[in-house]
Design brief:
The protein is 49% helix and 3% strand. By secondary structure, the chain is mostly helical. The protein has a domain of 123 residues: dinb family like domain (Four Helix Bundle (Hemerythrin (Met), subunit A), Up-down Bundle). Strand 1 and strand 2 form a beta hairpin. The longest helix is centred in the middle third of the chain and has 24 residues. It is globular and about 45 Å long.
């Protein structure tokens, strides 16, 4: 079967929270190698790399039937930044909030990631990263907590370390 933007991707159902405790063998990310307070700088640096990815001629091409295109990864990263800013705000303003569930695969299909304008996605990704980085710059209590819908508990510190893995990993995905 030819790979097209309509070919379904098998959802990644892994629980990636282990990246807080040990290095990721796929992308090399090691949460122990940085302080959570460095999250803002790491977000800004990661976001700066995406416009070049989105300027590639093959930005809509999926390398195989189980891997998103660079454009799909970038749209996902943009949405992760937006979602995590909302979750960070919940943790800063509420006591131990339960985050609303988010189905990233459903969002990718519903938002037609691979049909979006790469230049617009690049701009939105950089803006979303900047906004999230600004929100991390305002954190004064890194011990505040929040919970995912599956019950996984985070502090803002562990949340920051968990979050950073996603854009780092996906930038590695599109550069393989």
């Amino acid at each position: 079967m030819p790979i097209t933007p309509d070919t379904p991707i098998t959802p990644d159902m892994k629980d990636w929270t282990w990246v807080i405790e040990r290095p990721c063998p796929e992308c090399g990310f090691d949460a122990a190698s940085f302080e959570a307070r460095d999250a803002a700088a790491l977000l800004r640096a990661n976001a700066a790399a995406w416009p070049a990815v989105l300027a590639r001629a093959n930005v809509r091409t999926r390398p195989d039937d189980s891997t998103w295109s660079p454009l799909e990864y970038a749209a996902h990263v943009r949405d992760v930044f937006r979602l995590y800013e909302h979750r960070l705000e919940l943790m800063r303003s509420q006591d131990d909030p339960l985050y609303p569930n988010w189905d990233q695969e459903e969002t990718a299909v519903a938002e037609r990631y691979n049909e979006q304008d790469p230049a617009v996605v690049a701009s939105e990704l950089v803006d979303a990263a900047s906004s999230l980085a600004d929100a991390f710059d305002q954190v004064d209590d890194w011990s505040r907590s929040g919970r995912r819908s599956d019950g996984v508990q985070f502090t803002i510190e562990s949340f920051a370390k968990y979050l950073i893995h996603d854009p780092v990993h996906h930038l590695a995905d599109v550069n393989r």
